[in-house]
């Protein structure tokens, strides 16, 4: 393999919009309940406890790479993990998501949050080093939750449909909102810095729930904080991916916040997304995760359509529009990887 053909080079080059021999592919939530070996390894271990065990993190991160031969691994962790290290009592309840014991609803609660000390994340650094060594060349993606998405869990106390308390705080007490988001931006930035220092090849900032906001509110209440995280890594030498669900109307500001790659869900064709982000920004996505339940010829047609729609983008990393659904047949994911490589070969 020549230097530009190593998996690291292919994935990182695509993120930077440079020429690649084929389109690289990985899947959000590729480590998880769709894999029987994951369910077995996680048995009896709480989610956040699993994230604190470097040996287990390494094994869970590698499982989908061995099985599907994807072009990138994503660190097994969670966006709420650093919250536990700044004084938040948070747990991940199976089938529900993150639950916060004492939701943050006022200035006094914001003031109680502590700064994130990097040494509190020694187990993350160790997990990254171990995993990078085991991956022998396949790039590892580090990640963090963006301020809005983290704030939504803290203010609501758990998953939400309308984010009404979160939005109420934004509108009623903008100063409290901005103080909370500044703190969360620092936390996310520190979490990412620890991962970069330990050897990840790229980072993804997950603003999963930002699509609930209008563009004007996103620009006013959220973008400066996400920009603080992304711009804080502009000299880190790794591509920055910025993803949210239902963000078809936010792709331009999400790119402007300082992303090298914008992740797009299945609702927006990549051809429109390419126009929205402008030249110089790559795209990631965007196969409908539920399309993987279709018979193979339908899956194949959908994969080819995504590749075609990405044609005008600066660079393209193939992915799903959101995470792998737990009921997905893992063999279909393996076939998708092979198809993406074959159909995009140039
Ligand atoms: O393979 C990977 O993608 C890497 C690991 C990863 C996890 N969480 C592991 C996990 C990543 C990148 C995340 C990010 C994350 N966590 C996000 C952003 C991505 C997205 O989905 O939009 C969000 C919103 C969270 C918060 C969170 N954690 C949710 C909503 C859930 C699901 C709850 C459920 O059980 O349905 C979790 C738990 C979680 N994080 C699981 C995994 C593999 C499932 C828990 C389990 O297997 O017991």
Structure keywords:
about 350 residues; two-stranded antiparallel sheet; 15 helices; binds coproporphyrinogen III
Describe this structure in words.
The protein has 346 residues and is α/β, with parallel strands linked by helices. The protein has a single domain (3-344), classed as TIM Barrel (Alpha-Beta Barrel), CATH 3.20.20. The protein has helices at residues 7-15, 36-42, 47-51, 54-68, 81-84, 107-111, 122-135, 147-156, 164-172, 174-198, 215-231, 251-256, 270-277, 296-309, 330-344, and strands spanning 73-74, 90-93, 97-100, 140-145, 202-206, 240-243, 261-263, 282-287, 316-320. The strands form 2 sheets. A 7-stranded parallel beta sheet has the order 1-4-5-6-7-8-9. Helix 8 (147-156) packs across helix 9, helix 8 (147-156) crosses helix 10 (174-198) and helix 14 (296-309) crosses helix 15 (330-344). The protein starts with 6 loop residues before the first helix and ends with a helix. The mean pLDDT is 97. Bound molecules: coproporphyrinogen III. Coproporphyrinogen III (CP3) binds next to strand 3.
Radius of gyration: 19 Å
Percentage beta strand: 5-15%
Biggest sheet record: 7 strands, parallel
Number of domains: 1
The number of strands is 9
What's the CATH architecture?
A: Alpha-Beta Barrel
Q: What's the shape?
A: globular
What's the total helix number?
15
* Overall SS class: alpha/beta
CATH class: Alpha Beta
CATH topology: TIM Barrel
Order of helices and strands: HHHHEHEEHHEHHHEHEHEHEHEH
Bound molecules: coproporphyrinogen III
Write out the strand line-up for the largest beta sheet, numbering strands in chain order.
1-4-5-6-7-8-9
Oligomer: single chain
Low-confidence stretches: none
Helical content band: 40-55%
What is the residue-mean pLDDT, rounded to a whole number?
Answer: 97
Distance between the termini: 15 Å
């Amino acid at each position: 393999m020549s230097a530009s053909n190593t998996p690291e080079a292919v994935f990182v080059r695509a993120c930077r919009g440079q020429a690649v021999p084929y389109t690289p592919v990985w899947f959000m939530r590729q480590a998880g309940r769709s894999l029987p070996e994951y369910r077995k390894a996680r048995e009896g271990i709480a989610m956040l406890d699993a994230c604190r065990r470097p040996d287990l993190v390494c094994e869970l991160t590698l499982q989908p790479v061995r099985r599907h031969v994807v072009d990138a691994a994503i660190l097994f962790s969670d966006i709420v993990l650093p919250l536990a290290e700044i004084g938040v009592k948070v747990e991940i309840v199976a089938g529900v998501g993150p639950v916060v014991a004492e939701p943050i609803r006022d200035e006094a609660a914001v003031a109680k949050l502590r700064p994130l000390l990097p040494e509190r994340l020694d187990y993350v650094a160790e997990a990254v080093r171990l995993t990078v060594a085991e991956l022998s060349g396949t790039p590892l993606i580090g990640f963090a939750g963006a301020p809005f998405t983290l704030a939504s869990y803290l203010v609501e106390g758990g998953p939400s449909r309308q984010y009404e308390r979160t939005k109420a705080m934004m509108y009623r007490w903008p100063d409290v909102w901005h103080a909370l988001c500044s703190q969360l931006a620092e936390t996310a930035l520190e979490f990412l810095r620890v991962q970069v220092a330990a050897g990840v090849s790229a980072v993804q900032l997950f603003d999963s729930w930002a699509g609930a906001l209008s563009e004007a509110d996103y620009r006013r209440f959220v973008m400066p904080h996400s920009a603080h995280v992304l711009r804080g890594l502009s000299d880190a030498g790794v591509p920055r991916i910025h993803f949210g669900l239902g963000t078809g109307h936010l792709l331009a500001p999400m790119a402007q916040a300082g992303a090298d790659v914008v992740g797009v869900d299945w609702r927006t064709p990549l051809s429109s997304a390419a126009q929205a982000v402008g030249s110089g920004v790559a795209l990631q996505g965007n196969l409908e995760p539920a399309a993987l339940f279709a018979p193979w010829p339908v899956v194949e047609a959908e994969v080819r359509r995504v590749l075609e729609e990405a044609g005008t983008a600066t660079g393209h990393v193939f992915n799903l529009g959101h995470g792998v659904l737990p009921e997905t047949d893992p063999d279909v994911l393996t076939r998708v990887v092979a198809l993406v490589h074959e159909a995009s070969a140039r």
